[in-house]
């Protein structure tokens, strides 16, 4: 099972560079429309080939149970996905920083997740986890700082 996870992670890690390659030709919104169309086609194909009639009926019954607040949540989530995707595509195209953008997106989401778990759900973290969070923060600072030469980075820890 882990080899599948590692394989998917490897291909997912390549996506910022593949996106940057396509954005050399397309505008951000053109890329967004095309990738959305491809996702729609893949979703329909997966739905048609892997869902049987009983699961489709159950799915439609579950959709009918949704209230207006559920639809508002789905609408807000989709709006956030669209705006964040367009913003990320624009950053990749204009500033040529897909690695930094990808790292920032992943680490910021981790910090938001940690804040949510602490303040909303009241989770407790061990000292090992807190040190890991701190080291992640230090890593972000080191990755974003282009002014430090390699020699200076090694001298920081002496």
Task: Provide a concise account of the structure shown.
The chain has 158 residues and is an all-alpha fold. Helices cover 83% and strands 0% of the residues.
- Name the overall outline: globular
Biggest pleated sheet = none
- C-alpha end-to-end distance: 41 Å
Determine the fraction of residues in helical runs and give it as a percent range: over 70%
* Number of DSSP strand runs: 0
Oligomer: single chain
> Which structural class do the helices and strands define?
mainly alpha
- Rg, rounded, reads 21 Å
Describe the structure.
With 158 residues, the protein is mostly helical. It has a domain at 2-95. The chain is 83% helix and 0% strand. Helix 1 (2-23) crosses helix 5. The mean pLDDT is 81.
């Amino acid at each position: 099972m882990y080899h599948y996870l590692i394989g998917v992670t490897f291909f997912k890690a390549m996506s910022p560079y593949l996106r940057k390659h396509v954005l050399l030709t397309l505008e951000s919104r053109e890329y967004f429309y095309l990738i959305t169309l491809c996702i729609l086609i893949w979703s329909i194909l997966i739905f048609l080939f892997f869902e049987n009639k009983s699961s489709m009926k159950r799915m439609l019954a579950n959709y009918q149970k949704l209230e207006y607040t559920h639809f508002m949540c789905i609408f807000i989530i989709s709006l956030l996905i669209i705006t964040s995707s367009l913003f990320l595509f624009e950053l990749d195209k204009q500033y040529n920083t897909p690695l930094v953008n990808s790292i920032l997106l992943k680490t910021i989401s981790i910090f938001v997740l940690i804040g949510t778990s602490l303040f909303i759900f009241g989770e407790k973290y061990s000292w090992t986890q807190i040190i890991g969070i701190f080291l992640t923060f230090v890593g972000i600072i080191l990755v974003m700082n282009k002014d430090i030469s390699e020699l200076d980075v090694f001298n920081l820890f002496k």
